[in-house]
Amino acid sequence: MRSQILRSVQSVARKSNYTRNYASAASPERKVTILGAAGGIGQSLSMLMKLNPLVSTLSLYDLAGTPGVAADVSHINTRAQVFGYAEDKELGKALEGSDVVIIPAGVPRKPGMTRDDLFKINAGIVKNLCKSVAKYCPNALVNMISNPVNSTVPIASEVFKNAGTYDPKRLFGVTTLDVVRAKTFYATKAGLPVEEVNVPVVGGHAGITILPLFSQAHPQANLSNADIQYLTKRTQDGGTEVVEAKAGKGSATLSMAYAGAIFADACLKGLNGVPDVVECSYVASTVTDLPFFASKVRLGKNGVEEIYGLGTLSQYEQESLEKLKAELKSSIDKGIEFASNE
Ligand code: LMR
After folding, report:
1. What pLDDT band is residue 341 in, cutting at 50, 70 and 90?
2. Ligand 1: distance of its center to the CA of 11 in Å?
């Protein structure tokens, strides 16, 4: 039974391209730090990053609880050396020398809340953490998971600007869960093997700002307009679906950890010089007239190497794009204003 499970995990990992054969004895030393490692997303993410052979040092930080999480995952017989850090005073040590910093810290939604309702608490948390990132590892790639991502990424950019360390190529909002959901829902509706499906998702990471481009999905399925509208709405409401199902016990943790691990793995591959690593991410962008926008991004040794345009959109996607801009702009402005009011 155990070996059956192991074989199936290995086969899923191979098919999803996760860590595929890119690690070897010659793999460079890479330190990955998770800020918020003892939380709902943080613990699963810690385990998934411990399974990633591209990671040589895994640094787990949270206000409390990280010694236990670190001790636990450190027993997994993979390459990464694990260190746990707790309390403010250890944050610097946790961050020093990091190549990639993943930030899932903060509070999750309860039913009836939007991601923007988390702004009051999470904005301050992200701002303080980013000040330390600027101080202790200004060259790290920052993967922002804390919500509302549409605002926390602009907050981080302002903090880094104030510290004189801002490099737009190194700051990412993790929107991978939207892609993961779009692939799952599309494959199910179209009756396609999910591991062969790809769907770009652009815009932002909240409600109607999440715009899956099913007209560019691979392989193309013959779906009706009603199907496409249903799939779009389900992808946009995916986070809320989980919040409601958890009924007050938080939001997506397992699928978000999976998505965060996929994106961090792509960042590490890019840093290591693996060619053609492309993921959707919410980055500083000129693809639209908004200063931050999620679209397909090629990752490389410096972080963002290339941001791809939106390609040809269906009429429905074009209209949805126009509709999302006002909400996304106001979330961006809110983040920038918050961070500039010191
Ligand atoms: C998600 O997409 O599941 C996360 O952003 C969490 C949330 O509040 O929806």
Report:
1. confident
2. 28
